[in-house]
């Protein structure tokens, strides 16, 4: 049905969307709080909440006992059975998760691989994981769709992976492949862009309108930008490729990759090599680096941190953010010597551009990309609960 501005149906759908989005982003809220947040009257909020309950999208329950006088307002919370599948294909593993509408990871599995997975293999692997989970963890779950966080350039208009160099994917129709294999509506976007979205909504960037997010993963470094509260994708969705910039390196001895880009110098693979490992997930790598007393490990951490500081200084001078969030192995670099990183960044950023700047590590940890991917899958539902609920029911 066409939503015409000002029609009763259009207003009704937008109000349903407002309530569901608030419960999604803020967690359980009382009807009184929803009334205050939306500006709607109490009876309208009660009717909308009841409709969302009937749609199976939220639950209402009594609030915790208090000593307050009067009848307490019922609490509205998203239904725990409404979930999405999130996927992050990488050079060393494919991670699949089921994520609730409350942005919580329900079940998560990392499948290590010894070769570069193809788009077809990725779709088949995801389908097999979902089929197994439907017999156990997801037996009574309503899956809304799937979202993929891909380390590459993804065309915003149709989700085509134009170029994922580390996976060796070019013009890969992974969205269509996953939809065909799983039967779920599927969306695809750049992994770092989705990390930025997740951290902005639920993590270290919550409530911050201007931030830069940098993601360090097995496939290199990507980024995402939030400007005036909006995620910036660029003309076609390719914005934020910080890892492809050529870094300024002030110390001759710091260069490891002549003519290389940032992700050639600031590299997870180099950190793994320093601790003598071929692969490891994020928490394992962070633990190995923290536990090492090898001076060569400390030297590599310091070298990468110096080069990262230059890249951050450039980003500050161009974008003037109030916050920089670092995820993945970049969070490990930042946590190794935060004072040294702050000092190195301050030395290379314009003082006026860096006033009040804060540098934080990603709060969502290794789940940030999966939560961001789930946001892709939930987007249609949050925009129009009536249409998306009907579509999801038809798929199930």
Plain-language structure description:
The protein is an alpha/beta fold. The protein has 3 domains: 8-78, Orthogonal Bundle (Arc Repressor Mutant, subunit A), CATH 1.10.10.10; 82-194 and 369-395, 2-Layer Sandwich (Nucleotidyltransferase, domain 5); 204-363, ATPase, nucleotide binding domain (Nucleotidyltransferase, domain 5, 2-Layer Sandwich), CATH 3.30.420. It has 14 helices and 16 strands. A 5-stranded mixed beta sheet has the order 6-5-4-7-11, sandwiched between helices. It has a 5-stranded mixed beta sheet with strand order 14-13-12-15-16, sandwiched between helices. Strands 1-3-2 form a 3-stranded antiparallel beta sheet. A hairpin with a 3-residue loop joins strand 4 and strand 5 (93-100). Helix 10 packs across helix 12 and helix 13 (368-383) packs across helix 14 (385-395). The mean pLDDT is 94. Residues 19-60 form the HTH iclR-type domain. It holds the Pfam family ROK. InterPro entries: ATPase_NBD (IPR043129), ROK (IPR000600), Tscrpt_reg_IclR_N (IPR005471), WH-like_DNA-bd_sf (IPR036388), WH_DNA-bd_sf (IPR036390). Belongs to the ROK (NagC/XylR) family. This is ROK family transcriptional regulator.
